[in-house]
Design goal:
alpha/beta; eight-stranded parallel barrel; single chain
Length: 441
Amino acid sequence: MQTVQSHQRTDETDGLEAAIRQIGTRLEDAKPRRQLLRVIDDAVTRRVSERPAMRSAFYRMVDVAPVCRGYRDLGAHFAAFLGRGEGGTADRSRGAPITAALGLALTVATGIAGRRFIVASSPAGAVSYLRGLWRRDVEATVDLLGEAVVRAEEADDYAARCIDALEVLGAAAGGAAQAVDDTETPRANLSVKPSALTAEIRPWAPWSALEDGAARFRAVLRKAREVGAHVHVDMESLDTREATIDLVAAVLAEDEFRDGPSVGVVLQAYLRDSPDLARIMLDDLDRRESPLSIRLVKGAYWDHETIEATEHGWPSPVFATRRETDRNFELLTERLLDARPRIRLAIGSHNLRSIAHAFAYADRSPLGRTGLEFQVLRGLGDEIAFGLRACGARVRIYTPVGELIAGMAYLVRRLLENTSNDSFLVARGRTSDMKLLLARP
């Protein structure tokens, strides 16, 4: 009996792998050709990733760029970060023409990087871009840049910005959703960060954020219901996760919000305990009358989590390799797809194998692609998005909005993702061998 079951599982696995290869190849072929500037940008980024000292200096430069006094100051800091300044500090007295030219080039490069990832300084300024996506049947979720507030006034300001953004998005979308049932989310779609909704998040006392952040979160949800919008709660670093989960779970369990508005959360597959968190999320669905959206991602804080665990002598909360994370991502994909229609699943990845796996597994399931969409980041996954749409998939682009200074933390995370030697994007730039790109993790 065990032999028969083993053969059956092997046949099913082989069939799924064949479908993944077929779909992955079709998705790759459907991607539009990259623009010349993007090709050049990616080539420069790959060169940076191959030089650790240059990579470190570049990220440190991005961090100080907003407070530098002009391009000469920026160039001097960058030279210092490369070890060319006295004692590692910005030295403007030596090589002034060189540092000035370097600073000018870096100023231009930082602006280009910002425009690549950040669409506009305000939601109103992003409307034309969003309507352009909608005309191509591609959806978006708007992210208001800014995180980790330290004062209640800052949290109030962020909540007010969220409410204003929902007004703008609701008016632009005209209350339109992608469908008339609960299997798809509304077109007006906003991603929010809990760390910006309260200044009381404490890793050692996650309950401290509940009372303070709940009132602001309720106000955002009420506005979303009023304008027919979706609110997606981002997950950040591990030290804010418990507070985030407690805040969202407590407010959504209230009678006022049991049947809406449309709400989503994030599950990070690079965390070793993510299968346990997935189980908790699914168990809590009984409290809601409307489906919960879950955005499944790999995770963007790997460096932070690893460094912090090493400094304190803790076991690492994240998988050590991309292969382990990718394997867990696929297991969670299957588990969450099987949980439909109680949830809607958003696959947040640029990894061709991960995308093709979700596509193939959904096509082999009773519900097909109902309640499934794919999400990519503006500036990193645009070609993937339009390739997916050409293959009939539902797609959403994560679209940051805000000033460059407020978006520096986001910009650094995206650049780290785009240059990590363990990144699929870097691997994709090094090879076009579909067998390697679609190999099982």
